[in-house]
């Protein structure tokens, strides 16, 4: 969205307002407006995730061809603190009826995202069940903001005040904005810079709520920005996804795996809690699982299953991959490059290969071709030994998973180290292979949330 596009949007919005004031005058629906939920209440806990329904954008075009609000909300409501609905119709293909549809599917607060320049729009948004609106400092003067803010407060509508630079922030603070949305996108040239949040957020008083908007598409970005803000507004990345639930879980929790599954009930809790992967042990181990038990798990609980092998015969690996439709083969032994190359040629193209790298006193430097992801772990895995102290030195671990000694008392710290996900096992067990459902739920709550003292404020 460049300046010309923004001007075109605002010109169209003025025409839209004139037309709708004639078609649907305020007095025709004012008496039917009700006061209801509050966004502030749901964004005070850290972190708040505002997940967005957006059909298209001027910069990308159509984001989601099958734009079904009830189906989207069905996924979002399990993970979102609030839900954003883009209602601008010409450039973003939005509709106000999407707000009403969403309100019928969830009790979560609904943020109406549009280009608000006239009080009429606020009443209109509330009529369609909006609980909050977005006011952009870039398109409103101070006097316009005051008028809009007074109407919103009268209607018990929360306001997310969007800023992109320090000047806009100072204006917003002088106008007593209490929820600050920091837009990482420069509307003049469409560039995205997540450091915008890092620059602006520390200047916001600690009694305000800060939301980071735009350009957030990775779990590691959320962990990086979590030091500065109370929450995130995520839209385009989710809307482009062909697997919405998986993408939401990956964004909020990371691409985590709970390994050593032996029971259907454990796999069910693992999936429900937000894990992407479930691990099945196919080598001599207290967590070894027979094929018939694997079939029960994989047929009843839809996770991405990872077969864990240790110096195994390739024929054995292939049989398990085919019979169980494994998504990943994880190599935990001394498999060398020749072994990996041959295995890659035999496996279906959609099956990935992960390799565990042993850690003793130093970060491993081995690298192999045909490996999609590395796991940093003690030599044989499942030892319960903590690696975090070894890994505090700077290493590029964004395409690696962390395993080994992860328990409830160190999972949060582990989640801040920059790995794409965590491999959880013995720390969530009652006994080898028997998971503790309370520990699983608690672990994923820790991964999702972060303590208030983690936020950097002045």
Automatic annotation (TrEMBL):
Pfam families in the record? IGPS, PRAI
Question: Could you tell me what reaction this enzyme catalyses?
Answer: N-(5-phospho-beta-D-ribosyl)anthranilate = 1-(2-carboxyphenylamino)-1-deoxy-D-ribulose 5-phosphate; 1-(2-carboxyphenylamino)-1-deoxy-D-ribulose 5-phosphate + H(+) = (1S,2R)-1-C-(indol-3-yl)glycerol 3-phosphate + CO2 + H2O
Q: What is its EC number?
A: 5.3.1.24
Query: What PANTHER family does the entry give?
Result: INDOLE-3-GLYCEROL-PHOSPHATE SYNTHASE (PTHR22854:SF2), TRYPTOPHAN BIOSYNTHESIS PROTEIN (PTHR22854)
Q: What is this protein called?
A: N-(5'-phosphoribosyl)anthranilate isomerase
Q: Does the keyword Amino-acid biosynthesis apply?
A: yes
Q: Which UniProt keywords apply?
A: Amino-acid biosynthesis, Aromatic amino acid biosynthesis, Decarboxylase, Isomerase, Lyase, Multifunctional enzyme, Tryptophan biosynthesis
Q: Which residues form the Indole-3-glycerol phosphate synthase domain?
A: 6-248
Its EC top class is isomerase
**Summary of the function given for this chain in its UniProt record:** Bifunctional enzyme that catalyzes two sequential steps of tryptophan biosynthetic pathway. The first reaction is catalyzed by the isomerase, coded by the TrpF domain; the second reaction is catalyzed by the synthase, coded by the TrpC domain.
Q: In terms of domain of life, where is this protein from?
A: Bacteria
- Domain N-(5'phosphoribosyl) anthranilate isomerase (PRAI) residues, every copy: 256-444
The reply on keyword Iron is: no
- Write out the similarity annotation: In the C-terminal section; belongs to the TrpF family.
Q: What terms describe the molecular function in GO for this protein?
A: indole-3-glycerol-phosphate synthase activity; phosphoribosylanthranilate isomerase activity
Pathway as given in its UniProt record: Amino-acid biosynthesis; L-tryptophan biosynthesis; L-tryptophan from chorismate: step 3/5; Amino-acid biosynthesis; L-tryptophan biosynthesis; L-tryptophan from chorismate: step 4/5
> What organism is the protein native to?
Buchnera aphidicola (Cinara tujafilina)
Instruction: Give the GO biological process terms.
Output: L-tryptophan biosynthetic process
């Amino acid at each position: 969205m460049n300046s010309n596009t923004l001007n075109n949007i605002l010109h169209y919005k003025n025409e839209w307002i004139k037309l709708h004031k004639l078609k649907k005058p305020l007095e025709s629906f004012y008496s039917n407006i009700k006061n209801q939920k509050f966004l502030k209440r749901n964004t005070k806990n850290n972190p708040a995730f505002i997940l967005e329904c957006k059909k298209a954008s001027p910069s990308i075009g159509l984001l989601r061809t099958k734009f079904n609000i009830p189906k989207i909300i069905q996924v979002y409501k399990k993970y979102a603190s609030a839900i954003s609905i883009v209602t601008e119709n010409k450039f973003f293909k939005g509709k106000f009826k999407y707000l009403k549809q969403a309100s019928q599917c969830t009790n979560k607060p609904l943020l109406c995202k549009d280009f608000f320049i006239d009080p009429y729009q606020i009443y209109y948004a509330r009529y369609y069940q909006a609980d909050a609106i977005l006011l952009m400092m870039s398109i409103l003067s101070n006097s316009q903001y005051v008028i809009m803010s007074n109407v919103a407060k009268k209607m018990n509508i929360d306001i997310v005040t969007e800023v992109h630079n320090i000047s806009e922030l100072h204006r917003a603070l002088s106008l007593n904005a209490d929820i600050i949305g920091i837009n990482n996108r420069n509307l003049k040239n469409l560039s995205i810079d997540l450091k915008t949040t890092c620059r602006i957020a520390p200047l916001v008083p600690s009694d305000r709520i800060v939301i980071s908007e735009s350009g957030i598409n990775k779990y590691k970005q959320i962990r990086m920005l979590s030091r500065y803000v109370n929450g995130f507004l995520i839209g385009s990345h989710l809307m482009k996804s062909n697997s919405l639930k998986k993408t939401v879980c990956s964004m909020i929790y990371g691409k985590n795996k709970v390994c050593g599954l032996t029971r259907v009930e454990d796999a069910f809790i693992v999936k429900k809690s937000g894990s992407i992967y479930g691990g099945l042990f196919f080598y001599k181990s207290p967590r070894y699982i027979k094929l018939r038990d694997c079939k029960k798990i994989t047929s009843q609980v839809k996770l991405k299953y990872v077969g864990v092998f240790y110096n195994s015969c390739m024929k054995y690996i292939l049989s398990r991959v085919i019979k169980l439709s494994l998504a990943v083969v994880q190599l935990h032994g001394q498999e060398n490059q020749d072994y990996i190359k041959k295995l890659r040629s035999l496996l279906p193209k959609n099956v990935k290969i992960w390799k565990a790298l042993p850690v003793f006193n130093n970060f491993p430097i081995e690298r192999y071709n045909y490996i999609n992801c590395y796991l940093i772990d003690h030599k044989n895995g499942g030892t319960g030994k903590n690696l975090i102290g070894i890994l505090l030195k700077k290493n590029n671990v964004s395409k690696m998973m962390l395993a080994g000694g992860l328990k409830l008392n160190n999972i949060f710290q582990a989640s801040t180290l920059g790995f794409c996900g965590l491999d959880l096992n013995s720390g969530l067990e009652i006994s080898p292979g028997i998971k503790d459902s309370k520990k699983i739920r608690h672990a994923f709550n820790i991964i999702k949330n972060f303590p208030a003292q983690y936020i950097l404020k002045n």
